[in-house]
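Lab meeting prep.
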Amino acid sequence: MAEDAVPKTFRALVESAERKFAKVRDAPSYGRGPNHYFPKVFKAYMKLWDYQQKNRSKLVESGLQRWEIGEIASRIGQLYFVQYMRTSEARFLLESYIFYEAILNRGYFEGSSFKALKDRGLRFKELRFYARFLLVSLILNRWEMVKLLLDRFKALVEDSKAQFPDTTFKEWKVVMQEMVRFMKVDSAFSNTRPLRYCAMFDSYPTSLPYVARFHAKKVLKLRDALLMSYHRNEVKFAELTTDTFRMLQCLEWEPSGSFYQKQTVEFHDNGTSTDQSATSGLIDINLVADMTDPSLPPNPKKAVLYRPSATQLLAVLAAICDELPPESVMLIYIAASGDSGQTTVPHKQISGSVRTSVKLNTVHERSNYIMPETHVNGKGSSSHPSETSIWLGPTRNAGSNNLFPADLIPFTRRPAFFIIDSDNSHSFKVLHGAERGEPAALLLSPLRPTFKSQSESSADITQNGSQFTLFLTAPLRACWQIFGLTFSDDDADLMEDAESIVSDAFAEWETILCTTTTLDLVWAQVLSEPLLRRIILRFIFCRSVLTCFRRREENDHYVPVCLPELPDSVSPNSGIVQSAVMKLAEHLKVSHCFRFDSL
């Protein structure tokens, strides 16, 4: 009887941990409300892991399989990832990676008994493990690991089709194809500068004293962000599109120094491990250890929404807005097709795919923000359902599939930084001057992308990510795209010299912004926030490149807009701005593509 007590206790601990995990997994990842259940789940899995370690021999004798140990570790890795999506704390993402990598290195799902190899449920667990590990590695930019996992995932899918001929693995093949498409978009630039804010590359010694001395009447910190993208056939993996992936990384800090360097993990036959990494928690789950990098500010919390309806988007916005801390600003990034776009098609959800976005059906309405109001458009009349909008649905039907500019006005009761990336973005100009309490910052994309080759302009650029978003997250990659340049490792020096040109320009423009007396308070109050300051500088660069670009059709549709206006000293017509663009154009040998009226 005593021998039976060990496996029974183990199964009870597994079931208890699974029940607690389900509650955390389904909790919304937005808002700042305390999640008291998260420590409870960790405690449950710590207890479970310790128990299986201390009773390993008895559990093995009673039939414990290696894949069952891997399943527990996989759950812990998944739990860390869920918490990363809730908090945006890099340590949780790194913990998740270390857990998954340990499972891979130990081969917990490999070498099982013949009976286990024929277990279809076990095969699905292994496929889910690879899909989740792929997502974590992708967000961490571990491209070599992504390639390794993709190769193994492909082989596993093929083997699954052979081992289980009566089962369709079409959904997993789609997951594999999604990752292949995703990697093709940016794989050429995998060895270039990171999208995350890196002090080595994104702070400039010449302008740093001016930034340090700059102080507006009101200073806001970026605490929360909402990121969503909804385009037809856009490249994605799980519920992370190319655009939201780029923006997510753009709003985070790149770990620096040796603090986050992953150390070698040594595993022993009894299942214990010796890990010198500061963020390891595979065996010893320490809930109170402070593992944050003291040299970096905290990442802003981000709610990443995948294809929400307009009402769901507004409900999540209300939750974030309601809990926004004092002296803070929220960034709202919306990328979707507008009136001139193509009708989107329904996207079949993939069972077994990795959860990355919020559980939208758990959103509670905040009447203070989403109750109907009489809004005012730019002409002084009330808004009407027939006004232009952007689509957040599979059809053009009005209602929950349409987001109107006036829908966002209630959220201007709190400081907001809007980035609208759409072929109908200029219709959101009506937000300026119609705020309900706090003046909002607006960055509005061009209505059409720009290409050197006219033949490329007809392509659906949104599939591989928006050009405007690319400018805000990786400006030189956007230039390569515009001019139709190909990039390889042989062009590393060319890219590095181009980065130096752009960095010098940004340092000069940064100094101008910090010393000018005509900077609007809307921009001044966020200029001390490095993540937003970098976006503003990149917007200035984007606007100057697209304004000076020589094209047959001179049209404002190709130029982005900011409201309120930035100072004239950094306008596209400024000689200082144009000289930087000209220098870059000469370096890339594309000067003939530009017209510089101020030089």
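Slide two material, second protein:
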Amino acid sequence: MAAACISGHFLARFIDPEPAKCSISASLISCSRQSSIHFFHHKYQSCSLSMNGCRGDPRAPIGTIETRTFPTVSSPALAMDTLNSAISQLKSDPPPFTSGIIRLQVPIQQKIEAIDWLHAQHYLLLPRCFFSGRTPTGNSDIFNGNGHNSTPKSHNLVSVAGVGSAVFFRHINPFSYSDWKSIKRFLSNKCPLIRAYGAICFDARSNISSEWKDFGSFYFMVPQVELDELEGSSMLATTVAWDTSLSWTWAMAIDALQATMCQVSAIVVKLRKEVPKTYIISNNHIPSKTYWDLAVNRALQLIDTGNSALIKVVLARSSRVVTTTDIDPIAWLACLQVEGENAYQFCLQPPNARAFIGNTPEQLFHRKCLNINSEALAGTRGRGRSTTLDLQVELDLLSSPKDHLEFTIVRESIRKKLEAVCNGVVVEPKKAIRKLPRVQHIYAQLAGRLRSEDDEFDILASLHPSPAVCGFPTEEARLFIAETEVFDRGMYAGPVGWFGGGESEFAVGIRSALVEKG
């Protein structure tokens, strides 16, 4: 959903309200709703309080990458005091490097929800990000065949919220291997919590519309200040990054960090996770029902006649909603958390720009060292009103020939792409049901072992877009979407997540919205 202020009213564009998906497989179609948006170009997003890491030489090593941990304190206010003192000390004793990235972190005894902390910073015009992983499942690491990962879990992170960018990465050109290396240049296995959070657009070859222009073709940020919510505690951290070759000196970076710290609130109030009370003034869909029917029929004709290689295509529509009052994207995201078990929650907001938020169940991939997991998710039904009815709906989904075909296309496409860069791929379960609060899907888990960590870029580039949000074959489906849809999807249905030194995780940005503050 995108949003803007029109005549004092709040305007919002929804991308994929819950069960919404329109998939065309063979000659059959199931409809619910997905949505999307557009883009305009600026070569680089300039930000006076940070540097664009894409401008650097991705081959040049960073002078130092460090994490410094301070003693545990009892409250966010004390953590702020500790960090401010540490920053002052750093300023008086600068490191002897022309480039580097340093994270200072203070554990906090009490558990603070990251979404509450981020909401407390709502008045800032700085960039913001939020990412919350799904509830872990017992067989999330299946490559070893015994349900356990050979690498023990090193962090019990629940969710992360960040403001300000120590370094950001943005370009209007498609996300490339060089861009990936530019991000990885600031990351290290030794500092696992230095991460770049962001998203990549669905189709970088489409024109960028005005509502997505601040995101570019991709946008990632390493937060200046972040709150890490852990399973039983929390941690406040600051990160400073500099590179004189990018005209961003140590002095500029440390001054920018201090300026951000002066704006950060240490007072965190528990959010009431209630749906915002507002009234809808208008709700407009792009395309119209008439144009939508024409597009669906055209796709069916291509599939049925056999004159095209197209087997499946997933179309989207954009819903633009105007409401009587402002909707705070962070408060809205907090409401999604209530029904967000087994789903990713995310927020990405460039400086003084719209916020892209979502609650998606769909994993693109998770990499830890050389181990990689992905999943196929396709076919949708609502939940039954009783246990008996819910089971009937589940059996109907599992026995549906149309949904089986759609699911098989997705699963086999992912399997083949993993096999291209992995020594072996395990699919387990091969076909099962994943139940969410409102809907249920067919899913399969896939896992493999990469031959090299550098294969991560190839995995990202090949898995996106998946047949679940684009179609099959990929290029034929992408071209049909580009020719048919009259809006730019932007980050909708694109990869959203984070890169770390030895670990990365991305979801598919569906069930999402673009919200303009104000």
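Talking points for slide two:
DSSP finds ten helices and 25 strands in the chain.
The two ends are 15 Å apart (CA to CA).
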